[in-house]
């Protein structure tokens, strides 16, 4: 058995046009931030959907904390995929309280967790504002808060820096580094190579549905290394 917190082997799921995920192995260890980068359409979101049981693979396996997906304890997982899921007519605070409940947080602990989470993402001033009246960036902060507030052991975030302002990017960075230091396993996709180099322990490059290589977070020209790997994969295809 693998000791990885998140472990996927041989994952395949393609769409009618042949794109999708075409054979991926990926592992994330406890205490690690594993970043996933790739061009638009590389398959990052599809892979994350497979890891979270939102999409069934044609073949391959996923285990979370050593358990297959049908036996996973989902209260130990936090995720944000595509765009933040929130009830438009509920306030920030109400949405977070609902999210905490759905993640199995004991009722007596919910108010404290929600307030701490709003403080962490600097959402407190919007606590009583309906989601329908939030800016895009603050909706994204809410989605991140909802994914992180119950201190999950496994965290999967698809492009969390999307629509964040520079202050939000810094708050997110600090929140993710804190979670990793506390032992969580994080898989985070991003198009911001400098940001993933800052926080990633490992950076995997995805192209055309496969993981084609990795980048050194401490490398001198990460953008150039990224395009070298992608272009040589495209030339080989
Ligand atoms: N529901 C779907 N039906 C058909 N094709 C899809 C579907 N979802 C994604 N695809 C296709 O699968 C491929 C991978 O898409 P995916 O969204 O996983 O990539 P991505 O790396 O997350 O891209 P981006 O960086 O643009 O978010 C693309 O060619 C996309 O058009």
From TrEMBL:
Keyword ATP-binding: yes
Signal peptide: none
GO molecular function: ATP binding; ATP hydrolysis activity
The organism's place on the tree of life at top rank: Bacteria
A Pfam cross-reference name: ABC_tran
Database matches in PROSITE patterns: ABC_TRANSPORTER_1 (PS00211), ABC_TRANSPORTER_2 (PS50893)
Coiled coil start-end: none
Domain ABC transporter: 6-233
Keyword Nucleotide-binding applies: yes
UniProt keyword annotations, A-Z: ATP-binding, Nucleotide-binding, Transport
Gene3D superfamilies listed in its UniProt record: P-loop containing nucleotide triphosphate hydrolases
Family: Belongs to the ABC transporter superfamily.
This protein's name: ABC-2 type transport system ATP-binding protein
């Amino acid at each position: 058995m693998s000791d990885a917190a998140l472990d996927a082997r041989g994952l395949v799921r393609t769409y009618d046009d042949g794109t999708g995920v075409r054979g991926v192995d990926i592992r994330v260890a406890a205490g690690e931030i594993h970043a996933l980068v790739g061009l638009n359409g590389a398959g990052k979101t599809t892979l994350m959907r497979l890891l979270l049981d939102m999409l069934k693979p044609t073949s391959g396996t996923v285990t979370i904390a050593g358990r297959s997906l049908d036996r996973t304890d989902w209260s130990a997982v936090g995720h944000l995929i595509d765009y933040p899921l929130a009830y438009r007519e509920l306030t920030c605070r109400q949405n977070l309280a609902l999210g905490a409940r759905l993640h199995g947080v004991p009722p007596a602990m919910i108010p404290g967790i929600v307030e701490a989470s709003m403080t962490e993402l600097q959402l407190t001033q919007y606590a009583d504002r309906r989601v329908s009246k939030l800016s895009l960036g603050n909706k994204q902060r809410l989605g991140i808060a909802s994914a992180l507030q119950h201190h999950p052991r496994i965290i999967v975030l698809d492009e969390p820096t999307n629509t964040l302002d520079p202050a939000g990017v810094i708050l997110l960075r600090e929140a993710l580094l804190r979670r990793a230091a506390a032992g969580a396993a994080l898989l985070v996709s991003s198009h911001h190579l400098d940001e993933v180099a800052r926080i990633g322990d490992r950076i995997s490059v995805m192209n055309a549905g496969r993981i084609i290589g990795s980048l050194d977070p401490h490398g001198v020209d990460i953008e150039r290394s990224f395009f070298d790997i992608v272009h040589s994969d495209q030339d080989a295809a």
